[in-house]
Design goal:
about 270 residues; Alpha-Beta Plaits; 2 domains; 5 helices
Length: about 270
């Protein structure tokens, strides 16, 4: 039988999702836990790989097994063997035609950014950080240039293995959470910015490279129209440096409702 799982994790301690000889990846830990519960080796396929330091709120994987257990048993049993920063949230039996990656019609990410003169403390490793105020309208105008189908070579890492740099961005939503007026004696208010991205697929470092450009524009170092110039250049040298992985979250894939899989988790509401 084929099972699908929804998995969340903090990426700080791991070398990304994909299995490595070191064994220090999320996939390695998940497969080890599944093997202990199922008492046989388990090989998983995921909806979207994440880099070192990147978090996942609803990664989806599938695997094949002969073990007959209830979905609740797969959740509780696997979690018993996982470290505290990785958890299975749900399990569903799926048809053999289901493929976690190939059946996804879109993928969703969020980047959480702290705007503050003081570096993160309790949220260290879980948010990006800027110490100058950002212009939300300028960033939204810049992001609009990226919507639709484009060649995103300018935002592609040199190690990217994708066959084509052409991807489609369906939406980029930019919201601010925090007081509108600064505290007495302050010139501007600390706050959180949340950037949500949805597209059919993403290149290696694509969102972090876009974030680097959005921050440059938000801080006034570049005009909003510069984003269109970077996109048209089709050269990584044209874009800003790759931004930190700390605030990047894989929100999960989007599937056709016919598969009957959850579309979100409670952790979505925990982000600023």
């Amino acid at each position: 039988m084929r099972m699908a799982l929804g998995v969340s994790y903090l990426g700080q301690r791991y070398q990304g999702w994909q299995s490595q000889p070191s064994g220090q990846t999320v996939q390695d830990r998940l497969e080890a836990a599944l093997a202990q519960f199922a008492t046989h080796p388990v090989s998983t396929l995921c909806a979207g790989r994440t880099d070192a330091g990147v978090h996942g709120l609803m990664q989806v994987v599938h695997f094949d097994t002969e073990l007959q257990r209830s979905p609740f048993s797969w959740v509780r049993g696997t979690n018993a063997f996982l470290p505290p920063d990785i958890a299975v949230h749900w399990a569903r039996p799926v048809p053999e035609a289901f493929h976690a990656r190939a059946c996804a019609t879109a993928r969703r990410y969020a980047y959480v950014l702290l705007q503050s003169p003081v570096r993160p403390s309790v949220e260290a490793g879980r948010v990006g950080w800027v110490f100058r105020p950002l212009d939300g309208d300028a960033m939204r105008q810049a992001a609009a240039h990226l919507l639709g189908e484009h060649d995103f070579t300018s935002f592609r890492a040199s190690a990217c293995q994708a066959l084509s740099p052409v991807k489609t961005l369906h939406r980029i939503d930019i919201t601010r959470k925090g007081p509108a007026q600064p505290e007495p004696g302050e010139d501007w208010s600390p706050c959180y910015w949340r950037f949500e991205f949805e597209g059919n697929a993403f290149l290696h470092h694509m969102i972090r490279n876009i974030m680097g450009c959005l921050v440059a524009i938000g801080q006034g170092a570049k005009p909003s129209a510069w984003m269109a110039e970077v996109l048209a250049a089709r050269s990584r040298d044209a874009a800003a440096p790759t931004f930190s992985p700390d605030g990047l979250y894989f929100l999960g894939p989007v599937y056709d409702a016919a598969w009957g899989l959850p579309s979100r988790t409670a952790a979505y509401d925990a982000l600023p």
